[in-house]
Write a structure and sequence with these properties.
The protein is an alpha/beta fold and 407 residues long. The relative contact order is 0.15. The longest helix is centred in the N-terminal third of the chain and has 17 residues, at 92-108. It folds into two domains: 5-46 and 359-398, Urease, subunit C, domain 1 (Roll); 53-353, TIM Barrel, CATH 3.20.20. The chain contains 13 helices and 16 strands.
Amino acid sequence: MSLDLVIRRARLEDGAAPVDLGVKDGGIVEIAPAIASDSPERDAAGGLLIRGFADSHLHLDKACILERAQNRSGDLGGALEAVTTAKRDFTTEDVYARGAQVLDKAIGQGTTLIRTQVEIDPLIGLAGFEAVRRLKADYAWALDLQICVFPQEGLLNYPGTEDLLRAALEQGADLLGGCPYTDSDPEGQIARIFGMARAFDVDLDFHLDFDLDTSWRHLDEVARQTMAHDMQGRVAIGHVTKLSMLPPERLAESVALLRDAGIALTVLPATDLFITGRDHDHAVPRGVAPAHVFHAAGVCCTVATNNVLNPFTPYGDCSLPRMANLFANVAQLGRPEDLAACFAMISEDPFRLLGHDSRIAVGGPADLVLLPGPSRAATVSEIGRPLWGMKAGRLTFEAPAPRLFRP
């Protein structure tokens, strides 16, 4: 068989023997210990080959705005206020340009699948959505972009928001989000969001319980509505920082609740560490939900970027191995099997959450990323930088390992 490309000596699993992959017309047509072919070659040199990383929660529309939006208090209220003020000047062209900066970074870090959260309200209208929809089309050469529209500043307290959300869903938004903690009627928002999701037959992704007060939470109502609407496996929740403050017995109850309701948990360590605990002057809590505990119990868990260079998170290079490493540090995880679980939370689990297959197999697309380390655990512990990636058999980026010039 004539092939477009042969990838030599790639490992598909930790410790597995290297194999060759044959690529034809954008797909994988052969995997074997050795492929006899004089087609063009790319040597993986024993590196780990994956389908890429998946970022399950990323805000493109409000990224890269530090020069115009400062969080003066450092807390959640300061971040919301700063972005609301800056958002008055957002245009479709502006959102597109800043979002493109982030996608360029993400591609070079080996990310091939993203769920982006897009704010919808009467202030910004559909300008952000229109920009991100363009980005989705223009960057399809390198990654798949899933658009989640949501009401960052409330729904029932902000007349006109629901009509705009419905318009975005009618125009191709992939799923719907919620943010009940900013609404004057949080449970009313949750009920309305579930109703819209059923009407449009889309999945849900909530920003939830973004503080450390364990005397109340919206998680229970989201779980109740999930089961009442028979949406198990179609709902995700992000932040849920209250979970970081629960004693073992109550945490176990929450694990069982998410598992029984089929709700996925997304942890956003960079933002959660930066925002939470600001009212403590000593013994500052971490504020990062223990995703590894939920993951071990069978809950779909992901670790994601959230924000890049904005008042919620004034950091970010879009490296998901870096984010997994940050989570491992916070959770004090060091065993190889625990680090491998952190790797799963930026690869297999978010792929599954976003409805994609992360397996490399004959008949599948040649969407591939090569990692330099010998294992998934090493990628997390060493923050392994991908060496190259491709989509449909076409190279999308290359970042060769540094060359040392010894004396």
